[in-house]
Amino acid sequence: MSKPITGKNHVGERREKRPNGDIYVYERITAYNEKTRKTYTVSQKLKGKIKSGTQKIVPTRPKKRKGEGSIPGATRQHTGLTDILEWVGKASGIDDDVYASFSDYSAQLN
Q1: In what order do the strands lie in the sheet with 10-17?
Q2: pLDDT, tens digit, for every residue of 20-45?
Q3: Residues 70-83 pLDDT 10s
Q4: With contact defined as beta carbons under 8 Å apart, do 52 and 21 qualify?
Q5: Which of 27, 31, 4 lies closest to 15, judged by CA?
Q6: What residues does each domain of the chain span?
């Protein structure tokens, strides 16, 4: 005699061992499909991991969402050598000497 079909979801635990000895523990919710007469996984959630040599479940870090970690407002700028020299001159305080080394700027002074 088979088990009666109740239509309820079953909550179980699955353990997956990794090559380094850690065991990842997942909580899995399964349900039964009467048409195909098979069980299928409704959802699966990582509970934590058991490090090798211990017996305690340690929670893992949460997954990153798509919006996290990105740089807001980042733009790409194409700069040339004169732009870099201008920045170095302003930052170090020798911008007049840097400008004087170019022929266009020395022509404007005279």
Answers
A1: 10-17, 23-33, 38-50
A2: 999 999 999 999 988 898 989 999 99
A3: 666 777 788 888 78
A4: yes
A5: 27
A6: 10-50, 76-110
- Contact between 29 and 9 (Cβ < 8 Å): yes
Contact between 100 and 106 (Cβ < 8 Å): yes
The answer to whether residues 23 and 53 touch, using CB atoms and an 8 Å cutoff, is no
Length of the chain: 110
DSSP result, 8-48: --EEEEEEEE-TTS-EEEEEEEEEEETTTTEEEEEEEEEEE
**pLDDT computed for residue 69 by the predictor:** 62
Q: Which residues contact 91 (CB under 8 A, 6 or more apart)?
A: none
